[in-house]
Design brief:
Helix content: over 70%
Oligomer: single chain
Distance between the termini: 30 Å
Structural class: mainly alpha
Order of helices and strands: HHHHHHHH
Radius of gyration: 17 Å
């Protein structure tokens, strides 16, 4: 395997580890986890949005003339997928002790995490710098995702033990699996196609940051949430400027 594969796999394993930490925290330190999840979401959103606009999108546009359309496709595709989950799953009565209420969203998150593995492969196939910048926010957003997955399963009537096992499988282990499956294919494609796929990834990253994480964070307003968001923006900006 190429060195970039091992770097991409290392970051995807790091993402799985952060997800696992989120699950551990919400089980062991329930109050602290619930009180600080908003800050993690805001910081991750700041990194994802800034990295996309400052580096990933310009890089994709320089590689492929079709990148603008694929950027839109990446954003709308992830939006429609999450809209489907919201309309047909999450709006069901959460008071019912029905395993489907927990397992269906968890499977949706698992598929999302599996696609995250594809994003890791695409970003690191472009360059190590693009990969690090794109996936830094991705790794951070796995922490609240692990918490959310675990809580959904608990609400669905699963025991703490079964919720732990299922959340680890769906939200954590699926990301390295996505990288493992996708990298051999993505590493062999031409530059223009890679640029188009990078644009799809950028659209997905913008959706995760601006449409998925921030609105959810605003549902639980915290005193320093804007500071956390600004911190994520500053980190992404500092990384981009250091490369110029």
């Amino acid at each position: 395997m190429e060195p970039d594969f091992w770097i991409a796999m290392g970051f995807s394993v790091a993402a799985a580890t952060v997800t696992s930490i989120g699950i551990y925290v919400i089980r062991r330190f329930k109050t602290w986890g619930r009180n600080n999840t908003t800050y993690f979401m805001c910081f991750a959103a700041g990194v994802l949005i800034s990295a996309s606009f400052l580096h990933i999108i310009p890089k994709a546009f320089s590689m492929s003339p079709h990148a603008p359309g694929f950027l839109l496709a990446g954003y709308l595709g992830l939006y429609l997928f999450n809209r489907f989950l919201t309309a047909f799953v999450c709006e069901k009565d959460p008071s019912k002790s029905d395993a489907g209420i927990g397992i269906t969203p968890a499977l949706g998150i698992g598929f999302h995490s599996f696609i995250d593995g594809f994003i890791y492969s695409i970003a690191f196939s472009v360059s190590a710098f693009t990969g690090v910048l794109a996936t830094a926010g991705m790794v951070l957003h796995e922490f609240p995702e692990g918490i959310i997955t675990y809580l959904l399963l608990i609400k669905g009537g699963f025991s703490e033990r079964n919720a732990l096992i299922l959340s680890l499988i769906t939200a954590a282990f699926s990301t390295p699996l996505g990288t493992l499956v996708s990298y051999p294919l993505i590493s062999r494609i031409d530059t223009q196609t890679l640029g188009s796929l990078l644009a799809v990834s950028a659209g997905a990253l913008i959706y995760v940051g601006a449409t998925h994480l921030l609105p959810r964070a605003e549902q639980e307003p915290k005193k320093y949430s804007v500071v956390a968001l600004g911190g994520g923006v500053i980190v992404a900006l500092a990384i981009v400027l250091s490369k110029m």
